[in-house]
Each structure stands twice: as structure tokens, then as C-alpha cells.
Amino acid sequence: MLLLLLGLSAPLSADLPAGGLEDEIGGILIDRTVTLVGYRFVRELGDYRRANDLKIDENLIVYERTSARWGSLIWIMSGQDEIYRSFIGPRLTEIPAIAQQASAVIDRRLLQLQLQRQLSDKFDLDGQEF
């Protein structure tokens, strides 16, 4: 039985790149939306970022709160930092353009957060204490 398991694991490890699984997974886009508008936004955002090879190392979580009057409030978090917030109306045809604009805002905000983390002097504080 042990030989069978060892024999199966050899081809799997040969298929991975030199850096291992960490090189394959750069950042995850997690969908916490509740409506079709939110679902389409997350799908369009992921498709746009994948098509334009905009890879990030941060995990992004997309949240949604619906409103009958204003549409859907979409916000995107990276850890405990909010990096994007916008209202999206109920028109599904506008979502691809909004996702492209959101992608540009997300990239700028993530760069700002990385610079802020590198330049801040908080060696003795945790991220939540600062």
C-alpha cells in the first residue's frame, strides 16, 4: 500500500514548478455577494484581471449590501483594509466598465498600502494596534 502511494505522488510533484504551489497561487478573489449584480461584478473583475495578467499577492474579499433605493453597495477588503467601495445600480450592462475602473483603483490602493507598510515605523506594534 505504501509503495502504491509513493508511486502516485511522484508524478504529481514533478508537475509543480520549481517554487512549488506558492508560485501558482498569487491571490484569491473571494465572493461574499448575495445578488446577481454582485456575482456579475466579481466575475467581471476576476475575468478582467486574469485577461490583463494583473496578478496580486493579496487575498481580496468582495462584500455586498443591497438597497432597494440605491442598488448594491460593493466593498472590497484586503485583510482589515478596505481598498474599494462603490454603489452599483441594477443595470447589468454597466458592470464590465465598473469592474475595469475598480481594478485600476484596487491596484493603486494596494500599491499605497504596500508603501505605507514599508515606510511606517511600527516594529513593536501589531497591525491592529497601529
Low-pLDDT segments, ≥5 res: 1-14
Reported CATH architecture: 2-Layer Sandwich
How many domains make up the coordinates?
A: 1
Q: CATH class, anyone?
A: Alpha Beta
User: What structural class should be given to the helix and strand makeup?
Assistant: alpha+beta
Number of strands: 4
State the share of residues found in helices, binned by percent: 40-55%
Integer average pLDDT: 81
> What order do the SSEs take from the amino end to the carboxyl end, as H and E?
HHEHEEEH
Quote the beta fraction. 15-25%
Q: If strands are numbered along the chain, what order do they take across the biggest sheet? A: 1-2-3-4
What is the overall shape?
globular
Specify the number of helices: 4
Largest sheet: 4 strands, mixed
Distance between the termini: 53 Å
CATH topology: Double Stranded RNA Binding Domain
Alpha carbon gyration radius: 19 Å
